[in-house]
Amino acid sequence: MNLDSGIPLGDWEAIINVALLGLLLLVTIGIIRVRNLFAVVMLAGIYSLLMALVFTLLDAVDVAFTEAAVGAGVSTILSLGTLALIDSRREKVPNRFQFVPLLVSLAAGAVLFWGMQDMPAVGSADAPNQVHVAPYYITQTQADIDVPNIVTAVLASYRGFDTLGEVTVIFTAGIGVMMLLSAMPVIGARRRRRREDDDGDGDKAPNDGGNA
Amino acid sequence: MIEHLVPRVLAKLLIPFILLFGLYVQFHGDFGPGGGFQAGVIFAAGIILYALIYGLDQARGVISPGLVSVLVALGLLIYAGVGVATLLLGGEFLNYGVLDSHDPVHGQHLGILIIEFGVGMTVAAVMITIFYQFAGRLKITRELESDDDDEDEQADDHADGPVADARGPR
């Protein structure tokens, strides 16, 4: 299992992982720093593509498919559509330094790091989720359902009721978007025109600046 | 409609393979990676790419919004319908084993195939619907704004009428 350079395959995986996570960090910093919203949307798409690669490394190819198609593809296009709708190219920057969002972010991050102490190592065989029902699925899928892809067997059959709920969620989201965006287009345009008139009268108050 | 030659030619080449790959992920999901969710988003991405290159009106001509909104509900109905069918056949809700009276394993295969088809249908239709709504909204807003530019005061009177000067989504 060695490549030509003599580095074992597991080490290669670690190197690629570190490189990908480093790129993720860079892209995240970029998303925070850049004020041009078009660039932010593009960076978010790049983030999703990198996440798809990370999922592939974690052997979660299904999730990588979804991340690449939804995260990098569809949601980028929807974000661009939203940008065109709201007619705002730059993120508005608050005038003074915002202390509370920084505090909330640091506190949440600290709690997450603290909670990580209790988590099992990635891929550890005696992690709680691997010893509960997973052995049953692995040993019984061939006898019960006889499909090679155990993930599909779990999602579609063993936990078919959960998946029905997930499809209902997607259905509801679609209906919600239909209701919101197809209803009353004229009122939205009028409000927008009124806002633009207000802008013309004089400088409006700076926004509340809730960006974290 | 985008005039640039390279995206147009590339999209024309790629879209059939994207749709075919979506169908492959859909119906090969029991054997390889994938399933209804993945297939649905891949298929929808192909349609959205088509709409981006050839324009929203063209895409609506290929897959009409009415059909899509029927598919949104139909996929979920297929899924839940399989559950009801298993109830009527004497099993538990969504216990596909009873679908085939001779071999429960075959029933499982059949059930998974059908419900994954329902999942893929709803997911693809919802994705396409959301895209249609966003892109269509942009078009409506632009039409209204171009109305305002032409006739400032009277725009309110017939702002909701159809406008001929329709620019497609970017």
Compose a concise summary of this entry.
Chain A is mainly α. Chain A is built from 9 helices and no strands. Among the domains of chain A are: 92 residues; 55 residues, no CATH class.
Describe the structure.
The complex is a heterodimer of chains A (212) and B (170). Chain A is extended and about 70 Å long. The two termini of chain A are 46 Å apart. The model of chain A is unreliable at 201-212 (pLDDT under 50). Among the domains of chain A are: 1-92; 148-202, no CATH class. Chain A is mostly helical. Chain A is built from nine helices and no strands. Chain B is mostly helical. Chain B has one domain (5-137). Helix content of chain B is 71%, strand content 0%. Chain B is built from five helices and no strands.
Approximate strand percentage of chain B: under 5%
N- to C-terminal distance of chain B: 8 Å
Q: Helix-strand pattern of chain A, N to C?
A: HHHHHHHHH
Biggest sheet overview of chain A: none
Query: Sheet with the most strands of chain B?
Result: none
Give the arrangement of secondary structure elements:
The complex is a heterodimer of chains A (212) and B (170).
Chain A: H1 9-33, H2 37-57, H3 61-86, H4 99-116, H5 128-131, H6 134-144, H7 150-158, H8 160-182, H9 185-201
Helix pairs in contact in A: 1-2, 2-3, 7-8
Chain B: H1 5-27, H2 36-54, H3 56-62, H4 65-88, H5 104-150
Tag the structure with descriptive keywords.
heterodimer, A: 212 residues, mainly alpha, 9 helices, extended, disordered C terminus, B: 170 residues, 0% strand, elongated
